[in-house]
Amino acid sequence: MSRIETVATTPFDDQRPGTSGLRKRTRVFTQPHYVENFVQAILDGIPDKASATLVVGGDGRHLGREVTQTIVAMAAGNGIGRVLVGQGGLLSTPAASCVIRKHGAAGGIVLSASHNPGGPDGDFGIKFNVAHGGPAPESVTEAIHARASGLREYRIVRDATIDIDTLGPTRLLDTRVEVIDPVADYAALMETFFDFEALRRLLAGGFRMRFDAMSAITGPYAVEILERRLGAPAGTVVNATPLPDFGGHHPDPNPVHAAELVALMTGPDPLDFAAASDGDGDRNMIVAPGFYVAPSDSLAVLAANATAAPGLANGLPGVARSMPTSRAVDRVAQALGIRVYETPTGWKYFANLLDAGLIGLCGEESAGTGSWHVREKDGLWAVLLWLSILAKTGTPADALVRAHWARFGRDYYTRHDYEALDTQAAGALTAALRARLPELPGTSVAGLTIAQADDFTYTDPVDGSVTKAQGIRIVFEEGARAVFRLSGTGTEGATLRVYLERFEPDPARHDRDPQEALAAVIAAAREIAQIETRTGRSAPDVTS
Ligand code: VG1
Ligand code: CO
């Protein structure tokens, strides 16, 4: 007989969620009580448990099935009224957001470390989303952290194994457990947002595309939507089966980790369009014939053409971008006469703006794009919006981007990541940079003149909350900018992200290699932050 057991435990000192949930090495999560402690801290924050619904699912990575079972057993142990579990423990991050909203859940737990590799030697993560479907705001993650830091016991139903592979409801003590189709609600939502008829016509008309699911969660979603509902030929979606170790790859859709797709598109016989998504399905990479479309440019192109989708047919009330995202979308907003909100990195800051109806589109330089339809970034949704625009305009993707640059100018953009740095050295680098901010304006570096230097503070226009120290901005007089911040999702040492951009209005100069076009900004950033002296690194580990 199943019964509720109260288990004594001691707190862990490292259960503070970062940019996107609690993300650690898999072997950190396999320590006895580690998962249970954090889950208890989440459940403790859910009010009216007996009438609450909790959503559970993840990207299919190693450990996901076991942790799904643990969460169901703990939800029952804590008297949660209803648990919706994605079949097989699967739910993409945007689908989890969709399910939470559609079924009026109190929240959802998403098991993913996003684009980080999976497996016993890879990473695992637990994210908590609140009732609006978006990532828990800082007030909630801080409360979870405080709770976890003092936790002495957790409640769990022992000897409970739920069949998470068979659709339908069962009971575990007083808790109703429903195993749901992970794709159905999401696919239905996409049918309401987009004109599937128009997309079907595009895909039936000889349009050639590829979607690389990178052996991660978007496979089943993309096969259902692109191939089954929209009629794209079988095989359009590649690496479509979610694997616990993502086939040994990094499920990160960028030109480094999706090199094959970029090679195909920049080779002699490119397709009309190619895209990829990350481990948990919230990021997107877009590749036009001949070139990779920088996420900041993609956001700007989508903003300029958003009305191609019925879900945005009334136009955008405003747009938002994370601070390090390039200012390309600002130029579109100015032309449209709408406002741009500049937020800290991380999707949680967009939810208030979306809830208040202030924006209809938002995005990040890290390949996240989204809208009001859920409260997460959404990889496949971005692909469908691109296809809607291509269908409506009849313009090839490469020509569309070039025409965009010709009209608005091009914001050359790149991000340099220095990974696995010594944590102290990275902290000292940013501290030294911060200390020098007042003296920088007016000085020249690598032929560029610094106009403004500050540390980004965000005041949420809806609830007035203030978030400080969100990235150091150096703005140059020459239309260029460098931003420095430390990653909040890494699992080894510190990662320094350096975001570099420069505006080029002249169409005759829109065909350059971004690294070359940005050479002066790159040199200036390296010098201002003393990157080589302080980290010992003469080049970034990842350039995207
Ligand atoms: C990174 C990105 C950020 C994104 C976050 C979660 O955070 O820079 O834009 O929102 O990952 O994305 P950081 O702190 O490492 O820079 V995902 O797809 O990992 O859920
Ligand atoms: Co992700």
Topology:
Elements: E1 4-8, E2 22-25, H1 26-29, H2 34-44, E3 53-58, H3 64-77, E4 82-90, H4 93-102, E5 107-111, E6 123-130, H5 138-149, E7 153-157, E8 168-172, E9 175-180, H6 184-193, H7 196-204, E10 209-212, H8 218-229, E11 237-238, H9 259-266, E12 273-277, E13 284-288, E14 291-293, H10 295-305, E15 318-322, H11 328-336, E16 339-343, H12 351-355, E17 361-364, E18 368-371, H13 379-393, H14 397-408, E19 410-421, H15 423-436, E20 444-445, E21 448-455, E22 458-459, E23 466-467, E24 472-476, E25 480-486, E26 494-504, H16 514-517, H17 519-528, H18 531-535, E27 542-543
Helix pairs in contact: 2-3, 2-5, 7-13, 10-11
Structure write-up:
The chain has 544 residues and is of the alpha/beta class. The chain has 18 helices and 27 strands. It has a seven-stranded mixed β-sheet with strand order 2-6-5-3-4-9-8, sandwiched between helices. Strands 20-21-24-25-26-19-27 form a seven-stranded antiparallel β-sheet. Helix 2 (34-44) crosses helix 3 (64-77) and helix 10 packs parallel to helix 11 (328-336). The radius of gyration is 23 Å and the shape is globular. The N and C termini lie far apart (54 Å). The relative contact order is 0.11. The structure holds alpha-D-glucose-1-phosphate-6-vanadate and cobalt (II) ion.
